[in-house]
Amino acid sequence: MYSLTKYLFFSLLISFVGYAQEAADNLKYIGQKTPSLTPEIFAPDLISKKSEYEFGSVFNKAATAFYYGVDTGNNTEIRFTELVGNKWSKPKTILSSQKYGFNDPFLSPDEKRLYFISQRSLDGKGAKNDHDIWYVEKIGEKWSEPINASSNINTKNDEYYISFTENGTMYFSSNKGNSKNRQKSFDIYYSEYKDGKFQEAVVLSEAINTKYYEADVFIDPKEQYIIFCANRPKGLGRGDLYISFKNTDGTWTKSINMGTKINTKGHELCPFVSSDGKYFFYTSNQDIYWVSTKVFDELRK
Questions:
Q1: CA neighbor of 220 nearest in space, from 62, 109, 114, 94
Q2: What is the distance between the alpha carbons of residues 271 and 253, in angstroms, rounded to a whole number?
Q3: Please, how many CA atoms are within 13 Å of residue 75, restricted to the half-sphere of its CB?
Q4: Paired residues of 229 in beta bridges
Q5: Which residues of the chain have pLDDT under 70?
Q6: Cα separation of 29 and 46, whole Å?
Q7: Residue 22 dihedral angles phi and psi, to the nearest 5°
Q8: How many CB atoms are closer than 10 A to CB 36?
Q9: Residue of 268, 291, 292, 288 whose CA lies nearest to 44
Q10: How far apart are CA 278 and CA 250, in angstroms?
Q11: Is 262 left (phi over 0), alpha (psi -120 to 50) or beta?
């Protein structure tokens, strides 16, 4: 009798823990129903609004905090929402200015820094003509003042978008090598993080970069694949998303267009993959979309 009672107790306990875990999982990703192989607008009317243009976005590793960029029509700003108890907070603006914009948020691997791009001048008193990569550091429950990511990253030209490997190497795009055609010819670079600072940036190979526009790069934390926005001949729209996979010898496969499942006649940009590797987020025609990363399987072949 004692053994039966003990068995029933532990069975109920396991069932309760399983139910609690399922309930917690359902609250992740702002409580949205997860997508399949067909891209869907993410959190319509809450995050993705018809009256605004939503850009880069990033979840924390636990999928309980979400940062995203918004073009309000007057300026660009970064907003934030998080899971508090069993309810997501109302999205609030955390980085905004009437003098310059903020966009393309991305968390550092330890989530203690929030990186972004801005035309903020170094003294913060006004705007300059190019974008730099900046970050703020988490201090308790608040963020620090913006800190420039250093001259090994930033130049007098534009630096866009940010993502990281798990060891802290930053991938980003810049048009510093193409001063005469600044808006149409960006390339993708990486900078290793050593001894507390970013090293001199290195441009990626011709498997990724061409004489055309390559920007908005997401690097898989384990560097198994890379996704970026490009504007190339025979593309499907104003900007398409491309993908390249890492070979066993450390080189990259020739990048390929992600096809009509992802790309449209409009503009696809701002790629991001959730830390659990399950969901691919990107901006399409001024809204944020998401889809199962199983769409990568066919492209990998």
A1: 109
A2: 19
A3: 16
A4: 215, 241
A5: 1-24, 178-184
A6: 12
A7: -65, -40
A8: 11
A9: 288
A10: 24
A11: alpha
Question: What are the residues whose beta carbons fall under 8 Å from the beta carbon of 291, sequence distance 6 or more?
Answer: 35, 36, 37, 38, 39, 40, 261, 262, 279, 280
How far is Cα 113 from Cα 133, in angstroms, rounded to an integer? 12
Entry field: residues in the chain: 301
- Rama region for 295: left / alpha / beta (φ>0; ψ in -120 to 50; rest): alpha
> How is residue 270 written in tokens?
């701002």
DSSP, res 296: H
pLDDT value, residue 25: 78
Please give the DSSP secondary-structure letter assigned to residue 44: B
Number of Cβ atoms within 10 Å of the Cβ of 208: 21
pTM assigned to the model? 0.90
Which residue has 């067909």 as its token pair?
A: 38
Strands 53-59 and 40-41: unpaired
Q: What percent of the chain has pLDDT over 90?
A: 85
**And the tokens for 110?**
């330890």
Please say whether the beta carbons of 198 and 170 come within 8 A: yes
Distance CA 102, CA 117 (A): 6
Indicate the SS3 state at residue 225: strand
- Residue in this structure with the two tokens 């979840």, named with its chain if needed: 59
SS3 sequence, 104-119? EEEECCCCCEEEEEEE
Place of tokens 């029933």: 8
> What pLDDT is recorded for position 185?
83
List helix spans (H) across the chain: 2-27, 295-300
Q: How far is CA 117 from the centre of its chain?
A: 12
Residue 281, sorted as left (phi over 0), alpha (psi -120 to 50) or beta, turns out to be beta
